[in-house]
Amino acid sequence: MLKPSHSSLNRRRLLTSGIAVIGVSLVAACSQAAAPSPTAAPAAPTTAAAKPTTASAQPTAASAAAKPTTAPAAPTAAPAAQAQPSTAAGGQLEMFTGKILNPPGVQDKVNQQLISDFQKANPGVKISWSTYTSASEETTKIETSVASGSGPDIFEFGSTVVPTAAATGDYVVLSTSDWDTLGGQKKFFPAQLKMSGLSPGQLIAVPEYMLPFALVYNTDLLDQAGAKPPTTWTEFIDTAKKINNPSKQIWGTVMDPSDPFDPWHILWVLAKQNGGDFVSADLTKATMNTQQVYDANRFWFDWMAKYQVANIGDATFKGTDQLNAFSSGHVGMLVMQGPTLIPSLDKSAVAGKYAFAPMPTIPYGMSASPAGGEPVQTFVSGQYLTIAKYTKVHDLALQWLKFMTDVPQQMVFLKSYGYMPAIEAAYTDPSLQTPIWKAFVDAENHAYGTPLTGAWGPIEVVVGGYSAKIAAAIATKSYQSGDLKKALAAAQDQVQKLLDDEQAKKKQAGA
Amino acid sequence: MFSQSAEPAARPKSAGRLASQTSWLSRLTRERATTVPYYLMIPTALFLIVVVLVPFFLGLYVSLTNLNQYTIANWLHAPFVGLANYVAALTQPGAVSASFPQSIWASVSFALFTTVAIVPISIVGALMMDAEFPGRGFFRSLFLIPYVIPTFVNAIIWRLIFINNYGLADRVLPLVGLGAPTDFWLIGPRTFWAMVIADVWASWPFVYLMVLAALQSVPQEVEDAAEIDGAGVTARFFGITLPLIQPTLTLAILLSTIGHFNNFTLPFVLFGTPPPPAVDVLPITVYINSFQIFNFGMGAAMSVLTLLVMMIPATLYMRLVRLGAME
């Protein structure tokens, strides 16, 4: 006969078992919750935002210094939907997009309006969305969704993430029929399609909007210095020196070497202008240890170390820090910025005191591009929409992509966030006939694509990694001659390993 | 007679049956008493298998493969590379993050320094709050504020304090002759101390709470007797209080050390990625390798190696519990 204590023990164990069962149920419930519950209205965003990916622009000299005359207006009601009825009635669509923080609180309203318009043309469709606030979140979601074979039906990626996503092989390669549904490839800016997939026949991403880069400058500070926007890097340094007034905390320019992703933007552009690149043209060899890449890096870090046109404190800066510094009116010139900056600048201390100009293209100390150097001002940049292979609502997802890339919705992006439409038809609108937008369109038409390797995402991180270390060494006066070469040598090994992995995968696929 | 004679004859039979039944029931009961608890453990065991063992063995498997962005879509068929990831983790310098040995050093140093700083602060705080005084409840609650603030909020607060040139640290410390307004706390060698300070502020209430709870169980009579015998405050603390709270204190120190070692959020938010080498602790290194460079195999190998390192305090903890030191 069991003793009372045993009986008690049994009850306790029963209780424990019950708790365990409840725990398992909770875990199961959590995993269920990972998939969005069907909601007629979009789910509240859980995270936020997208790192503006890039788009590139090559404004001409004539268009340089065009002041923004059409700051994006406050969000307006979305125009009437032009969505085609879905081939399948009903259905549930989940999207994963970047969080748009500027202007604050607008994204929810815009998305709800867009979804409502889409639902009018597609009755019974339920759409939910979640957002990411950083590139880390963006890539983590890709990895977990790919590994588990479940998750959002539609992903929004930055242009440089597309090759990495394509490398997973888990996103739908758009067929001719798919492109026809979207309105054809000619609907989009040709440069944007350069980054839509690993090869022209393997496009997975539909351009959603583009974000060309240029140089933004403080017109007051340049006027006071009696300077014009620079067209060469020599002029850039000279102008920055004229603006510099450290005693008043006024600096010629600003940097963000501690940002995990940003540094490659300027360093890649500088490397291309010098005639170099981070990887070889055939994407098999790392070229981080070349003289051209070294010169690009040395020049950028010398803004702090040698020319002292950037505050040494910038060594701790991330992307938002440098934007804040420029917005405060203490910085003369800020490189590699797109039109998305306009809404926040218009609400800052430099409102009405800034303008955009093309990025300089001639390396420091030179009067013309060196042999092999290219006049790169920017790279193809922007946001793209992709469909996951595991989706069960492919046709519905395609309809959504078409809807989002039609003129009315593209204009909503422009008016709500300052995002440039990725389709050419949108540019007949009078609001896009101003010098600033024409300059950015010109830039877009001359944009260079970054290497189409699936290793590009990690390469960005590698560059961000050594950038933070070198900047910290300079700021804390522990930098020693040869440190940069050592850092680039380590980066070379790391990048080569990434490329080797890709080659191995290609060989495996070929076999 | 018959009945009389038959009855005794029947009695043994019936008694035998009864004895046999009793014995069978007894055996069954004994068996059930022994086996039923095991059956009842099944849900718990299943839970542990799903939550602990399956991920552990998956992690172990992944650490033996070259799992990256090219193979993750079909991760069960990622190329098997044996111990290559372990060898690389232990021998190769990190291009983005610190190398594994550097990260181990950073993590161990951080955990130890933080714990060493926290223990005296916590004991003094607990002793103060153990004494009776007006408003004790208010101060007890006040001391818990750092502990209830989410770690990422704490990290943001300290990032603002340590930000170069404009932060509170660079504005206040020079006034008392400790440093210059241009000192860097978020990059360079001071980063380690910035992280220790931020973590000490955020986590000392944990040890404080444990010690305060232990102090409640110290018999007042023993303290009084020692005081009558002429023992001073210091002698009473080291001779009576400390030995009596030592088991709880040991557990608190152990758990606190493990907590510091595994702290990801604080360095991640305070310094971002990649962090300066001095604060490139293991959780950050594993994160960078796995989720930024997409080298999941290497990340998993580092995680397994971290587990081995963590086995040291974990074993100590289990021994303490088994030996009844907590009682």
Structure overview:
The complex is a heterodimer of chains A (511) and B (327). Chain A contains 17 helices and 11 strands. Chain A is α/β, with parallel strands linked by helices and 511 residues long. Chain A folds into 2 domains: 73-211 and 381-434, 3-Layer(aba) Sandwich (D-Maltodextrin-Binding Protein, domain 2); 212-379 and 452-510, 3-Layer(aba) Sandwich (D-Maltodextrin-Binding Protein, domain 2). Chain A has a 6-stranded mixed sheet with strand order 3-2-4-10-5-11. In chain A, strands 1, 6, 7, 8 and 9 form a 5-stranded mixed sheet that branches. In chain A, helix 9 (263-273) packs across helix 10. The longest helix of chain A is centred in the N-terminal third of the chain and has 31 residues, at 4-34. Chain A is globular and about 65 Å long. The termini of chain A are far apart. Chain B is mainly α. Chain B has 2 domains: 2-62; 83-322, MetI-like (MetI-like fold). In chain B, 72% of the residues lie in helices and 0% in strands. Chain B is built from 14 helices and no strands. In chain B, helix 3 (84-91) packs across helix 14, helix 9 (191-216) crosses helix 11 (233-261) and helix 13 packs antiparallel against helix 14 (296-322). The interface between A and B is large, with 59 and 48 residues.
Write the layout of secondary structure elements.
The complex is a heterodimer of chains A (511) and B (327).
Chain A: H1 4-34, E1 55-56, E2 91-98, H2 106-121, E3 125-132, H3 135-148, E4 154-158, H4 162-168, H5 176-182, H6 190-193, E5 205-210, E6 212-218, H7 219-224, H8 233-243, E7 251-253, H9 263-273, H10 291-305, H11 319-327, E8 331-337, H12 342-345, E9 354-357, E10 382-387, H13 394-404, H14 407-417, E11 420-421, H15 435-445, H16 456-475, H17 483-510
Parallel strand pairs in A: 1-6, 2-3, 2-4, 7-8
Antiparallel strand pairs in A: 4-10, 5-10, 5-11, 6-8, 6-9
Chain B: H1 2-40, H2 42-62, H3 84-91, H4 100-130, H5 136-143, H6 145-148, H7 151-162, H8 168-172, H9 191-216, H10 220-228, H11 233-261, H12 265-271, H13 282-292, H14 296-322
Helix pairs in contact in B: 3-14, 4-9, 4-11, 7-12, 9-11, 9-12, 10-11, 11-14, 13-14
